[in-house]
Every structure is written in structure tokens, then in C-alpha cells.
Amino acid sequence: MGLMVLATFLLSVMLGIIRHVSFELHPFEVVFFRNLFGLGILLPVILKAGLETLGTTRIGLHSARGLLQSASMCIFFYGLSLTTLAKVAALNFTAPLFASVAAVLFLREPLGFNRAFALVVGFVGALVILRPGIAVFNVGAGMILTSAMIWGVVLIIIKRLTVTESSLTITLYMMLYLTPITFIAALFVWQWPSPTQLLWLVAVGCCGTAGHLCMAQALKDADATAVMPFDFGRLIWAGLIGFLFFSEIPDIWTLIGAVVIFSAGMYVAVQESRQGQTKARPQQQAKLEDHK
Prior knowledge:
The chain is mostly helical and 292 residues long. The protein has one domain (2-291). The protein has helices at 2-21, 27-49, 59-80, 85-92, 95-106, 112-130, 139-161, 167-187, 195-221, 224-227, 233-246, 252-291.
């Protein structure tokens, strides 16, 4: 739980730094440096593990993941430069819901009542935040939602990759694809960052990598349903950072929508966890009988 809280703090700080740097550098360039410095942080681990981490039979899935995640990151960073941090954090909670839709479409998983109910509730929450036809459409918020949609598909690809690939191999190929692809995007808007901006960009890479490592370790050490409620801390941290450093005040609709979306995501997580435990019990019992 402590690791998850730390992860949400680090990732929120990363968002705040990205927003600050994006006032002076194009978001595509910030995306590139985030990946470049993230790869640099991972290099010692990769070198220690050896070249065998490059071994894979799923290069097609790695390529698809690299292209989609590059697009998702570019759209997300651009949207982040146009809307408030709290709204970014709130709409980002829709990613697991989009992943559920992708699982039904691409993995042919059953929709079921629980998943369908959560999806409807979650997307109602998104509508509460966006309020189409009532509030002026926020381009940045729309880009964050589009990014979350693409990221949902990426999550399904990662799920497929984990069947045969190690987490280090998956991470390595991610960085090997993201860095050059986002560099190409950055070339069209390139300007050399100042020394101060470079320090901020290093901080983006450090906070992002450390945050994801903390989150991965938290999910490894405890059941997802025990630690995922603390992921809501991202909204709290993002709201505080936005208020203290950017004079952003979250409106009541963003807060209500965030609670609705997050609750829907947690409902799916809890239900699927229970289903997984139910399926696991007969297998455990069979193993026990075999042992006897």
C-alpha cells in the first residue's frame, strides 16, 4: 500500500513537471526525452541481465505495442499541456474500462453483466466530466480520453505478452520502440532544450520510471484489489499540484466524474478477482488430491 501511494505521488509529480516544461517545449519533444532518459535509467539493469533479454518470438506484438503506445503518449502529453491536472488524472481512470472493451473485442472474453454495468457507469462518469452540449468542449480533455482509449488496447497487448515474455523483455522492447518513434515525432518541432529544461526532463524520466516500478512492485507484493484503491491518490496529488503550482481549481463535475469512473473500475477489478479465485479453487483442490 505504501508503494502504491508513493507511485501515485511520483507519477503525479511527473505530470506536473511535464505541464511546466510544456509551456516552453513542444509536448512531442518532452515525450522523446521522457523515453530517452527512462531508457538510460534502465540500461544498467539491461546490461546486467545480458543480451538474452532480447530473445522473443512475439516481435509483431512488441511492434504493435510500440506504435500504439507512442501514439498514446504523444496524444496524452499534448492533452496534458491543454487541460488541468485533476481532469487529466480523472479521465485517465477510464483506461481500465477501455481495456475491458478491448478484451471483449480482441480476446473474445465474455462481456457479462458486471463488466457491462461497470462500463456504462464509467462512461457516464466521463460524460459528467466532459458535459458535451453543456460545457465548452475541451480539446485537451478529448485528447486525454483518446489516449486512454489507445492505452486500453495496449494493456491487452501487454496481457498477451506476459504469457511468454519476462517483464524485463517487455520493458526493454517498449523503450527500444518508444525512443526512436517519439524522436521522429519530436524532429518536426525540435528546439534544443536549455540546461535547466534538461534537468526538468531528467526529472520526468526519473519520476516516471520510479513510479511505474513502485506500482509494479506493489501489484506483485499484494492482491490488486488491496492496493488499487490507493491509485485514487493520483487525483488528490494532481489536484494539489495543480492548485499549488498552476493555480488550478478542480470543478465539482471533475471530482464527481472521477469518483464515478474510479468506482466502476474498482468494481470490475473486484469482480474479476473473485472470479479468478473461484476458478483457482478447483485447480488447487485437484493438486491437493493428487498430492494425497
